Amino acid sequence: MKAAGFVVGVVCALSVAGCSTDDGTAQTTVTTTTRSSSLLTRPPVVGPGVGPTSWLAQPPGIVVPTTPGPLPTRSGTPGTAPSSAAPLPLVSTDVVSLVAVDAAGRPANGFTLTSPTPVGSIDCSHMSPSRSATTAGIYECGASADSANVCWAAPDKASLLCANDPWQRGLRVYTVSPPVAEVGKTASPEPWALDLADGRHCRIRVGGAWGGRSDGLVGAYSCDGGHDVVLKPATARTAIDTSTSTWLVKVGPLGSGAPDFPAPAVVAVRTAYFAAVS
């Protein structure tokens, strides 16, 4: 895996994964992990005859991107699509752990509070560790419509600061009653968000009703720049092939019912974002 650049800020020290951030104000120091890190080791996918990477098999050195729609600019708004869908070169995936809230409960590393503050209250009676966190102390609670799957707690634990995405870096503040308890770390973190090699941004699914396909693949990440999503087999634990330094995903559309679609395209992941506390 290629090393990320170093920027001024607080070091996010992780036992299993290095940390980095995008360019911005008051960034944390970044250290990306090596591919041999235990964080990135994936157990076998559950399902008959399905290994952790077999469904993403692709000839070496070839990554076929989907036909791109409008691509996001750095600010997250649609940009201009490339004129062709020629295969893109393989790139080593950067693994980034973002610290959006400091120990005092203030936004950090380019994150800011959205308005209104707070946006309301949230039910955390069934809270759990965020499945996208590389450290303890990141929360997931509320209904799927709240999209509160990557949240940092204020020091008094009576409010949560929940991130929208790693690109526009907005934090929604929710009040919590009673205050949340300490929370641990999920055993096998899945990336919160992905930058794909064709320029699209994809965010992990948070419940809700999605469409289907006749091949049985289901949606795992929603993406901008068109109607495609990151797909995985219904029985698979992860949608990402992490068997090499270039992580790969399958991308294609979903539809009402179970319509026939062409085989999904295999696309490289440029950056995989996780969440962490400082």
Tell me about this structure:
The protein is mainly β. The protein has no helices and 14 strands. The chain has strands spanning 94-98, 112-113, 120-121, 128-129, 138-140, 151-153, 159-163, 170-175, 193-196, 201-204, 217-223, 229-233, 248-252, 265-275. Strands 2, 3, 4, 5, 6, 7 and 8 form a seven-stranded mixed beta sheet that branches. Strand 7 and strand 8 form a beta hairpin. It is globular and about 50 Å long. It starts with 93 loop residues before the first strand and ends with a strand. 41% of the residues are buried.
Give me the count of strands: 14
User: Fraction of residues in helices?
Assistant: under 10%
Largest sheet: 7 strands, mixed
Order of helix and strand elements from N to C terminus? EEEEEEEEEEEEEE
Radius of gyration: 18 Å
Strand content: 15-25%
Runs with pLDDT <50, length 5+? 1-84
Number of helices: 0
Distance between the termini: 23 Å
What do the pLDDT scores average to? 77
Structural class: mainly beta
